[in-house]
From TrEMBL:
Gene expressing this chain: Dmel\CG42371
Database matches in InterPro entries: CEBPZOS
The protein, known as: GH19557p
Transmembrane segments: 21-39
Source organism of the structure: Drosophila melanogaster
Keywords attached to this entry: Membrane, Transmembrane, Transmembrane helix
Length: 87
């Protein structure tokens, strides 16, 4: 019984694509974690995101409320309103 072997060029393409996809996914994960960490630790960065990308900050607050820290949204809002009043 003869066994057909797959073409090596196809396997090279599949292996190369899988490696590229893995690296790309790792880079995207690292970048998203970096943004999350910066948003979690830097109120000024959150204010910048609020002014330029409010939908991103809304998702950040929603995730925080699901995980358990529901006071960040109110704390940021009161801090930013106090800053606007002092200006």
């Amino acid at each position: 019984m003869l066994r057909k072997t797959p073409k090596p060029a196809i396997w090279k393409f599949i292996k190369g694509s899988a490696k590229t996809l893995f690296v790309l996914e790792a880079v995207c994960f690292a970048a998203s974690y970096g943004v999350y960490y910066r948003m979690n630790t830097n109120r000024e960065f959150r204010q910048h995101i609020h002014e330029n990308y409010p939908f991103v900050l809304d998702y950040y607050y929603k995730i925080g409320e699901i995980v358990g820290d529901s006071t960040v949204r109110q704390a940021d809002a009161s801090y930013w309103s106090a800053l606007k009043k002092s200006d």
